[in-house]
Amino acid sequence: MPVFEYTALDARGKTTSGIIDAEGALAARQKLRTSGIFPVSVKETYEAAPKKESRSISLSSRFSRVKPVEVAMMTRQLATLIGAGFPLVSALDALVPQTKSHGFKKIMAQIKNLIVEGNSFAQALSKYPTTFSALYVNMVRAGETSGTLEIVLDRLADITEKQQALMNRIQTALAYPIFMLIFGTIVLFILLIYIVPSFTSIFADMNQVLPTPTRLLIFLGEFFKSYWWGIFIIFGIIWFLFNRAKKTEKGRFWIDKIVLTLPLTGNSAKKLAVARFARTLGSLLDNGVSMLVALNIVKNIAGNILISEAVETAAIEVGKGQGLGAALSGRGIFPQLSIQMIQVGEQSGELENMLTKIADVFDNEVETSIMRLTSYLEPVMILVMGLCVLFIVLSICLPIFEMNQLIR
């Protein structure tokens, strides 16, 4: 059934817009009039090709991308409706008007139409790879096959909400240090470009040798005043080279390797990737997905090439009959604690629950590490700012002190 975008007037004369499905434009207008609103314009929307959606890099597609929190909310509501006995199509039909995002509303309506045309829910979701990940699609497919779709949707909502909550806590913890860094950098630039030259010009006509800190300050002030644009060009080149390296396999390998070996954040990055791997693998196994299929799915969601290669190698070893814990320990990427807990889970027959515990433990450790790091960053940044201001003040005051000594 086609989907139409409409602009209409309600009973109070207020303009409203949305989407509606109907057999044709005339039927859509009639359906709108029946619901008490009067259509101004009605036009059909067309389903985007999967390849175009997955490869699109335009600014409009980036800004209209569906947020994970919207997917999690829809998943939770859909699980509730299906658990209450609603057929899948009726449940989707009930959720479409409640969806706030216009882009997500169109996607939901088109998914419903694909199901009405005879596609499975997983097949319909796979048409939108930028909105629904491979993990999401495969778990829904497993739920449809086993007849436990509402349980799978509940677990998917749990996974998405926990990952989003952790990212929100990390972003909140880093917000103040980042603000301090940006604000402090702007203040230093203003001091060097506008304030310092007005003071140092006083010493320009002096026939005596200025102190080294003062000469260095004058040089920095003149440099930033004359070549401030060069700093932005340098940062732009670095950003361009970084993004270009990320698009190559070798570049991504070295970037991911550096991320895992950084002194302060490398261990947390590794634990975060392993936690994502463990939680996803546990959910897939718990929903009836076989070990080899599950490993092939989760190898691409870790977010790090080194961990993905370790999982891919482990999948080959598991296919030969080796245990998962022993297979993962071969590359030395996974923390020893996770290997031991996986081996205990395999021996006890509780691998799914043990993987969930690994994810919980590592998520908590990452959050604690981030909070500890930010608590250290704040005083360090204040100290650095204080030292910079002290250097500027001393550089200005030292020649004045010397002039006072000469006068005496």
Write down how many β-strands occur, each being a DSSP E stretch of 2 or more residues. Answer: 3
Average residue pLDDT: 78
Order of helices and strands: EEHEHHHHHHHHHHHHHHHH
Poorly predicted sequence stretches spanning 5 or more consecutive residues:
47-63
Strand order of the largest sheet: 2-1-3
> SS-based structural class?
mainly alpha
Helix proportion of residues, in percent?
over 70%
Major beta sheet summary: 3 strands, antiparallel
Q: State the end-to-end CA separation.
A: 95 Å
Please characterize this protein's 3D structure:
The chain is mainly alpha-helical and 408 residues long. It folds into three domains: 1-46; 50-131, Up-down Bundle (Receptor-associated Protein), CATH 1.20.81; 133-408, no CATH class. The chain has 17 helices and three strands. A hairpin with a 5-residue loop joins strand 1 (3-9) and strand 2 (15-21). Helix 10 packs across helix 11. The N and C termini lie far apart (95 Å).
